[in-house]
Specification:
It is a single chain. The chain has helices at about 20-30, 40-50, 70-85, 105-130, 155-165, 185-195, 195-205, 220-230, and strands spanning about 10-15, 35-40, 60-65, 90-95, 135-145, 170-175, 235-240. With about 250 residues, it is an alpha/beta fold. A 7-stranded parallel sheet has the order 3-2-1-4-5-6-7, with helices on both faces.
C-alpha cells in the first residue's frame, strides 16, 4: 500500500454509514497529514471520530453537509480543504445511501441522485488532487442500481478517469448490490428494515451463488488497495453482488 507518501491527506464522504464508515477507520491509521470526514449527520460524525481514540491523525476535520445548495456547499468544502490542508491524496466518495423504500421508480430516482452527488464531489475533489506531484486516487462507492444504462455510473467513472489521467489521478468505483447476496452489516439491514425479524428474514433468504451476509468492512479488502496502492488501474467499476444478476 502507498502509505509511504509524506503526510497523506484523505477524505471520506458519506462517512458515517456502510463502506464510508468502514474505510474511515483504516484511513485514520494511514492518513498522517489529515482526515476529512463528510456526512449530513453531525452527531454521527462526532461519534465516529471519537472511536479513533489515539489512532486519529493529528488533524481531523468533520464537515456536516447542511443541505441547501449542494454545489455551493461543495465549493465551500473545497475552499476549506485547500486552506487547511493544501492538497488531497485519497478520497472515498460513498454515495451508497441507506435504502428508503422499494420499487423500480424509487430505485431509478436513487440511482440518479447518487450519480449527481458523485459528480458534485468529483468537481471539488479532483482539482484539489492536481496540486500533488504524485497525483491522487478516488474510489466511488455506489449502489449497483447506478449500473443501469440511464443512471450513468459507468460513464461518470470513465469520463472522470480520462480527465484525471493527465494529473495522475486514478478514479475507480465499487458498485454494491442491494439484492440478497450483497455484503452488508446486520446493523445496516436492521436500520433499513426497521425490525430484527425482517432483518433475519433477509439473512434466511440469501440465494445468489455467493450469497454472503458479512460486515461491510470486508469491502475494505477491495477498496483500500484501489485507493492507496500504486497501480495503473483507472476507470474501472467492480460489482460486488454475490454473483446475482444486476
Amino acid at each position: 500500500m502507498d502509505f509511504e507518501r509524506i503526510n497523506p491527506v484523505a477524505l471520506v464522504s458519506g462517512a458515517t454509514f456502510g463502506a464510508g464508515a468502514a474505510c474511515a477507520h483504516p484511513l485514520a491509521f494511514g492518513a498522517d497529514g489529515g482526515l476529512i470526514l463528510i456526512d449530513r449527520d453531525a452527531a454521527a460524525l462526532d461519534t465516529l471520530a471519537d472511536r479513533f481514540g489515539n489512532h486519529a491523525p493529528e488533524r481531523v476535520s468533520l464537515l456536516a453537509h447542511d443541505g441547501g445548495d449542494d454545489d455551493a456547499w461543495w465549493a465551500r468544502a473545497g475552499g476549506f480543504i485547500k486552506d487547511q490542508y493544501g492538497r488531497l491524496d485519497w478520497a472515498v466518495l460513498n454515495a451508497c445511501a441507506p435504502r428508503a423504500g422499494a420499487g423500480d421508480l424509487i430505485e431509478f430516482n436513487r440511482a440518479g441522485a447518487q450519480i449527481d452527488a458523485v459528480q458534485r464531489a468529483l468537481r471539488t475533489v479532483m482539482p484539489l488532487m492536481r496540486f500533488n506531484s504524485q497525483g491522487g486516487a478516488i474510489v466511488i462507492v455506489a449502489a449497483a442500481a447506478g449500473l443501469k444504462p440511464d443512471a450513468g455510473l459507468l460513464a461518470t467513472v470513465r469520463t472522470a478517469a480520462k480527465e484525471g489521467a493527465s494529473g495522475d489521478i486514478r478514479i475507480n468505483a465499487v458498485a454494491l448490490g442491494e439484492a440478497p447476496g450483497a455484503i452488508q452489516s446486520f446493523q445496516d439491514t436492521l436500520r433499513d428494515t426497521g425490525s430484527e425479524r425482517a432483518a433475519f428474514e433477509i439473512i434466511a433468504n440469501l440465494s445468489p451463488p455467493l450469497a454472503r451476509f458479512g460486515p461491510v468492512a470486508d469491502i475494505n479488502a477491495l477498496i483500500m488497495p484501489m485507493l492507496t496502492g500504486q497501480t495503473p488501474v483507472s476507470g474501472v467499476t467492480l460489482v460486488v453482488d454475490g454473483g446475482d444478476e444486476v
